[in-house]
Amino acid sequence: MQTRSGIHQARRNHDSAGKQGPHLAFNICGLVILVLLMVSLIASRTVFNKRFVMHEVTSSTVETDLLDQVQAGLSQYGIPRTVLTKDDTDRIVRTVVSQAFAGQELSLDLSQVTNRLAGQANSQLAQFGISTSLLPSGTTAAVNDNINSAVNSRINTPQVKQAINSLQLARMVNTTVLGISSVLMVIMLVGAVIHRHLVQSFSWICTLALLVSGGLVMTVKGVIPHLAAANPEYSSLAAQLATGFQAAALTWLGLLAVVAIVLWVIRLLSPRLSSRR
């Protein structure tokens, strides 16, 4: 015949076994959601962030290649390669990156450059008493249109158009994953608070998510350079994006590590504090 204490012990064991199943499923779901949240968040702050990409482009050989294409278009009209200033270069890069992130065809307006060059020519002609007012009206505008058309036709290659389309698709997928995982994570946090196992569950979830996310970050870092293997001109940019991605990812992973440590400290100290009371 079972004693009363034995009956109570059996009930506690039964309740503990009953809770283990739901908690395990909860932890697995939380792990998957948190990993997706971390990876999509890191991606949205790096490779899918316009400011981040703009910074990487300006410090890579891609900027030089882009300017070579622009200068080649200008040289068709006898415009020297030295006409582009640092401000012109920065403006061209900002325009290209902004249009690419907007999913638009690249369209550069170099009228500022040609107008400045025309102004210099006018000043030189004026020194010899030659008036440029004798030129037909609309001549400068026509030349600007021709130059813009020549330059834009050189930079809008099929590879560039494909890259812009791929960027838009990847950004859309990443934004969707980030939004859904954020909502699900909030729901899981609320559920854990209601059922009083927030610290117990999320100490494990955060720790495992830190390890899995770290592994995925290293994998992505290694994959990014290979994506540009078919286009060697983008290899330097891909390498820089991979390095920048890893550096930014370490910041977010460090934050997750701090959260995990805090949760484990609370979990380990809670029984001792309760026993003293």
Summarize the structure in short.
Helix content is 81%, strand content 0%.
How would you sum up this structure, described in words?
- It is a single chain.
- The chain is an all-alpha fold.
- The protein has 2 domains: 21-49 and 162-269, no CATH class; 51-157, no CATH class.
- 81% of the residues lie in helices and 0% in strands.
- The chain contains 9 helices and no strands.
- The longest helix has 42 residues, at 4-45.
- The protein is elongated, with a radius of gyration of 30 Å.
- Residues 6-21 have low confidence and may be disordered.
Key phrases:
single chain; 277 residues; mainly alpha; 2 domains; 9 helices; elongated; transmembrane helix; transmembrane
List the helices and strands and how they pair.
Blueprint: H1 4-45, H2 50-58, H3 61-75, H4 86-101, H5 111-127, H6 139-155, H7 158-194, H8 198-227, H9 235-276
Helix pairs in contact: 1-7, 1-8, 1-9, 2-4, 2-9, 3-6, 5-6, 8-9
